[in-house]
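stage 2 :: seqdesign
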């Protein structure tokens, strides 16, 4: 009998991992960076995905807004497992077998994960103070 890791991890944990990755300290609005955001229930289709609203710019967003995970056909689970396997130093080849993906997909995912989970804002000079 073969154990499939994809059936062993659950979506709630995956979303929690994403929150920790993108908001290690405090949650910020992906549009205006304001920290006055409020929770607005969960996604209709994906019950583990938390939605938020920014009190500053009034935009709505969710756990994946502005990350490399949004707008991809791979489920979040697959991304998180890919990240996990990368941490174990598995080769792309090995990861692709484990997740049942083709090597090209894994290569692209790994490249994006190495860079950052948060999409780069277009030329945003960070002014602090
Ligand atoms: Zn905002």
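stage 2 :: out
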């Amino acid at each position: 009998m073969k154990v499939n890791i994809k059936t062993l991890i659950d979506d709630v944990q995956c979303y929690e991992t994403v929150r920790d990755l993108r908001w290690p300290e405090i949650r910020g609005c992906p549009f205006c960076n304001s920290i006055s955001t409020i929770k607005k229930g969960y996604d209709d289709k994906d019950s583990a995905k938390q939605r938020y609203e920014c009190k500053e710019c009034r935009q709505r967003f969710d756990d994946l807004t502005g990350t490399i995970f949004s707008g991809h056909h791979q489920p979040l689970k697959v991304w998180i497992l890919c990240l996990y396997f990368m941490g174990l130093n598995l080769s792309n080849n090995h990861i692709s077998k484990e997740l049942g993906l083709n090597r090209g997909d894994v290569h692209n995912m790994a490249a994006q994960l190495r860079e950052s989970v948060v999409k780069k804002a277009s030329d945003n000079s960070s002014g602090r103070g």
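stage 3 :: structure notes
- Residues 29, 31-32, 34, 54, 56-57, 59 surround zinc ion (CB under 6 Å).
- The first strand starts at residue 37 and ends at 42.
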